[in-house]
Amino acid sequence: MHFARMQVDDLTEVLAIEYAIYPYPWTRGNFLDSLYSGYETWVLRDMPGMLLGYFLLMLAVDEAHLLNITVRTDSQGRGIGCMLLDKVVALSRGKNMQSLLLEVRPSNQRALKVYQHYGFSQIGVRRNYYPAARNAREDAIVMRLPL
Q1: Cα angle 144, 58, 29; round to 5
Q2: Are strands 99-104 and 121-131 parallel, antiparallel or unpaired?
Q3: Are 111 and 117 within 8 A, CB to CB?
Q4: Which residue, among 44, 58, 47, 46, has the nearest Cα to 14 in the 3D structure?
Q5: Burial degree of 55 (CB within 10 A; 0-12, 13-18, 19+)
Q6: Global pTM value
Q7: CA distance 89 to 7
Q8: What is the pLDDT along the chain (147 residues), one digit of tens a residue?
Q9: Residues 16, 25: contact at Cβ < 8 Å?
Q10: Which stretches does DSSP call E strand in 1-147?
Q11: Ramachandran category for residue 61: left, alpha or beta (phi over 0 → left; psi -120 to 50 → alpha)
């Protein structure tokens, strides 16, 4: 497996995964904005070149903010998410960040377990943060990992 910076040419594959996993996925425009803003945007591929996962990380002052991290459905449960998080932490530490922040849906129990196992702690809740079914909104659990 190997990491590479996300490129515009990766977006067709990235969006296929994004739309297969999330009921409210990021748009092509969201990804382009992150790429053009100079965020840390990375993909992970296996040796034949299949896209396994990706993440987008924004660095601000002394805190990194994990905007999106995703593992393709058929690669989940194989440690790929932890590999992505390892890369996120290494990049953040390399840029002298003091902590890593993220938001996650309470309904995303799989991700919550991964983050808790990795060492993230809940530090707050953002009320009505995410879109949800029937024009409702879902809270976001805010988590932090000291670096």
Answers
A1: 125
A2: unpaired
A3: no
A4: 44
A5: buried
A6: 0.93
A7: 21
A8: 999 999 999 999 999 999 999 989 999 999 999 999 999 999 999 999 999 999 999 999 999 999 999 999 999 999 999 999 999 999 999 999 999 999 999 999 999 999 999 999 999 999 998 878 888 899 999 999 999
A9: no
A10: 2-5, 40-45, 51-60, 63-71, 99-104, 121-131, 137-146
A11: left
Residue 71 CB: number of other CB atoms within 10 A?
A: 25
Structural domains for the chain: 2-146 (3.40.630.30)
> Which amino acid makes up residue 144?
R
Here the tokens at position 124 are 């707050």
Phi first, then psi, for residue 105 (nearest 5°) are -70, 140
What does the chain come to in residues? 147
